[in-house]
Amino acid sequence: MKLIAKTFHGLEKVLAEELKNLGAQNIKEVNRAVEFEGDKEILYKSNLSLRTAIRILKPIHQFTASNDQELYDGVMKFDWSSIMTNEETLAIDPVVYSEHFTHSQYVALKTKDAIVDQFRNNTGKRPSVDIENPSVRLVIHIAKEKATISMDSSGDSLHKRGYRVGNHKAPLNEVLAAGMILLSGWNKKMPLIDPMCGSGTILMEAVMYARNYPPGLHKKSFGFMGWKDYDAELWNKVVEEAKDKIEHPRLRIFGSDISVKAIDIARESALQLRFNRDITFSVSSFEKLEPHYPKGMIIVNPPYGERLMKDKDVVDFYRMIGNQLKQTFIGYDAWVITSHKEALKNVGLKAIEKLKLFNGALECGFHKFNIYDGTMKKIIKFR
Ligand SMILES: C[S@@+](CC[C@H](N)C(=O)[O-])C[C@H]1O[C@@H](n2cnc3c(N)ncnc32)[C@H](O)[C@@H]1O
What we know:
Layout: E1 2-6, H1 12-22, E2 25-30, E3 33-37, H2 40-49, E4 55-64, H3 68-76, E5 89-97, H4 104-123, E6 128-129, E7 136-143, E8 146-152, H5 174-184, E9 192-194, H6 201-210, H7 232-244, E10 253-257, H8 260-272, E11 279-283, E12 296-300, H9 311-328, E13 332-338, H10 341-345, E14 351-359, E15 362-371, H11 374-382
Helix pairs in contact: 2-7, 3-4, 5-6
The structure holds S-adenosylmethionine.
């Protein structure tokens, strides 16, 4: 069957690689998604094990529509009793990029009307709507005139791994953090430091990746569990096989933050998944942090200065980051993600790789700096 894994801008390549490793076929990267083919087992594995997918869709019906009536008629052309009964509940999520349809909620409403009318016409009874916990969640996607209706096999977004506790003010999305780790080329064996770890998302995703730990293991339910063809035995097999592949290597992963509260939250999350032995936490400002090993990788998501910092302070803050990297972390590769372009320049090191990612609506640079022995000398020479 044809399937689509949705993701964030910039993560298509690593997602395609993950799908290849799962055994998916005919993999094609598109904008913020990867199309692929696979059987039910691949569908279940994708939901359980993909780190960089937000949800997995199964397209079931395509048609063209440039007005409300064509939309209604197009939806009616599918036999909805083939995927659900009138006893079950449904929800419809609209994704609309079309000048013909300006109100996405209206598109969802029209789609729902056509489906329930078909059931009422054929059986005298209609399925009801349940936004929170439907038996079948559908996505109607309209691009210009092309409408595609898909079944959402994931239900709740796959970024909700179930390890988050407490409330950090600016946590990274788990899918984005996992994508950053895969993009960074971290090889699992080298020491990894997040010196401004906040709630610890980068660290948790790093441990999951290094241990081959399926990110969906603690999710209680998936959309496909409400489907007519749900195969509980196959799902259990997929879960058991994935659990058997969890590894227990010795990891050198370090997280620190200036905030005691943030470290408390991060520690608590690590405890949830029994990752507490895999991560060494400390409360420290980056200015005072000393590495435990002479070589390694830093992945850091500093404050962007959106709310609390003034622009001048942000620039100074990133200058401090650069200085600390140059003075204390020689031998390390450092990846920094931020939406503050100007501040990023003030790190004062030449980025050897520059990637574009989005943290929610914020366009961010994810830049790699190589802190080698000559870095300091060069800086001094060019002053
Ligand atoms: C954008 S948040 C990081 C969020 C984190 N990636 C997460 O997923 O929760 C930035 C963090 O930097 C920390 N921070 C700010 N100034 C710092 C400093 N000088 N040294 C260390 N940490 C600092 C803040 O306490 C905050 O937790």
